[in-house]
Amino acid sequence: MPTAAKLVAAIGFALMAYMASEAFKPLLPEGTRVHLLSPLNAGIGALSGWLVMGRLAGRGYREAVSSGLRTAAVAVFYILTGWAAYEMIRKSMRLLYDGPMEALVAMMGMIGEYAVMAATDPRTALIVVGGGVVAACLSEWAARNLG
């Protein structure tokens, strides 16, 4: 059921994912196609905000902070998994892997590589953590005052 808290969480986490994607783009290798990176990641952030944070709103601001970090982690997990799967399929179409197991192992390696790149960049990490907390607090406010 749509609520104000779910809408605010979706918008907040979409903005967080979009801004983090923009901060992450310069870290990618030269020549990487990034034209759809930010909009698609914003969509995943919006879904995470709606489905995860939206249902956790209304339990208090202290709980909102931990729920916001949880939602940000869920969004980052699905973003990293989605892009690594896309890259693995793209490489598979060029027959760069000997079999499906090698492709899956390479995908897990890409997830780890992208996660380390994002976690060690202070701007990206700050946007994910800070944006998750701010979006969660706004969602909590919407649950209390608009719902």
Structure, described:
By secondary structure, the protein is an all-alpha fold. Helices cover 81% and strands 0% of the residues. It is built from five helices and no strands. The radius of gyration is 17 Å and the shape is elongated. The N and C termini lie close together (12 Å). The mean pLDDT is 95.
Which secondary structure elements does this structure contain, and how are they paired or packed?
Blueprint: H1 4-24, H2 37-56, H3 61-93, H4 100-120, H5 122-145
Could you name the key traits of this structure?
147 residues, mainly alpha, 5 helices
Largest sheet, if any?
none
Mean pLDDT: 95
SSE arrangement, N to C = HHHHH
Strand content: under 5%
Q: Which residue ranges are poorly predicted, with pLDDT under 50 across at least 5 consecutive positions?
A: none
Total E-strand runs: 0
Q: What would you call the structural class?
A: mainly alpha
Number of helices: 5
As a percent range, the share of helical residues equals over 70%
- First CA to last CA: what distance? 12 Å
Please provide a brief summary of the model.
The chain has 147 residues and is mainly alpha-helical. Helices cover 81% and strands 0% of the residues.
